[in-house]
Design goal:
282 residues, alpha/beta, 8-stranded mixed β-sheet, two-stranded antiparallel sheet, 9 helices, 10 strands, globular
């Protein structure tokens, strides 16, 4: 069986196809700056379009999108026990906001704010608004109204029972807010879905340090734990070098107690001591 001969007009078609396939790919044009800022590539730490507030910890800022706490967005702080470490984590950001003449608004904290401690952070009572909402519905409503009104320089709200759809609603509202919004929630909420772009699991250590795990951020997954030195402002000037590391003192005491138990003779039972007492009586 013989193949048909190639027609003369077929040659230009093959040559043009060869020319197209061998031509170099066109270089994509640079995007406008605002579009480039809004574009997020999954293998890079995102740069938010809105402003950020530095956290005061260089190691943490290096892992946060934009280099600080995002404004116009929700940030969840998850910890086993509320009102323990969030003030130490947010102290530098609160101080910066208050120094700019803005207001710190606190909604539904488990305990009343400790004014002397806040003064050590640089917070003047005139720039503090405390709303002691108790019921979950009240906390949620007050938080949403403050976000909508853009009425705070920094908003810190405790919402331990918020549902995912409620968090999503707050995130939509927060996109038009100029302030950073922090929601304090229990550590168990880390297993729940959340629309908050930034989620941080927070624990404190024995040596006054904070242990952070970035559960969710705009960028690649963060592996490991961030350890931040954070001595309370009221104790920083009076703690001795030994008291700055209580874990060493605890370990040394436990070692001494263990050595004493191992080196001491075992006590005899009453039955073993009874014949001695009876012989002494005779």
């Amino acid at each position: 069986m013989s193949l048909p001969a190639r027609r003369p007009h077929d040659a230009p078609a093959f040559s043009s196809l060869r020319a197209v396939t061998s031509a170099p790919a066109a270089t994509p044009r640079a995007l406008p700056r605002d579009i480039e800022a809004a574009l997020w590539r999954g293998d890079q730490i995102g740069a938010p379009v809105t402003a950020v507030v530095p956290s005061g910890f260089a190691a943490l800022d290096a892992e946060l999108p934009g280099g600080g706490w995002p404004c116009g967005s929700l940030t969840e702080l998850l910890q086993p026990q509320p009102s323990v470490a969030e003030w130490r984590l947010l102290g530098a950001a609160v101080r910066r906001v208050v120094a700019a003449g803005q207001t710190l608004v606190v909604v539904g904290p488990p305990h009343a704010p400790h004014l002397p401690g806040l003064q050590h952070l640089g917070v003047d009572a005139r720039h503090l608004v405390w709303i002691p909402a108790e019921r979950p519905a009240e906390r949620l409503w007050v938080t949403e109204q403050l976000i909508r009104a853009n009425a705070a320089g920094l908003l810190l709200s405790w919402l331990p029972q918020a549902r995912p759809e409620q968090i999503r609603r707050l995130q939509v509202c927060a996109q038009s807010c100029d302030a950073p919004v922090f929601l304090c929630r229990p550590a168990a909420a880390a297993c729940e879905p959340s629309a908050a772009p930034l989620r941080v699991e927070l624990r404190f250590g024995a040596d006054w340090e904070l242990h952070l795990r970035l559960i969710k951020r705009k960028g690649p997954t963060h592996e490991g734990v961030l350890t931040l030195a954070s001595v309370p402002a009221g104790l920083e000037s009076i703690l001795t070098p030994r008291l700055r590391q209580p874990s060493r003192l605890i370990a040394a005491r436990q070692a001494r107690d263990t050595l004493h138990v191992v080196g001491s003779p075992a006590p005899r039972s009453p039955a073993a001591r009874a014949p001695v007492r009876s012989l002494a009586a005779h």
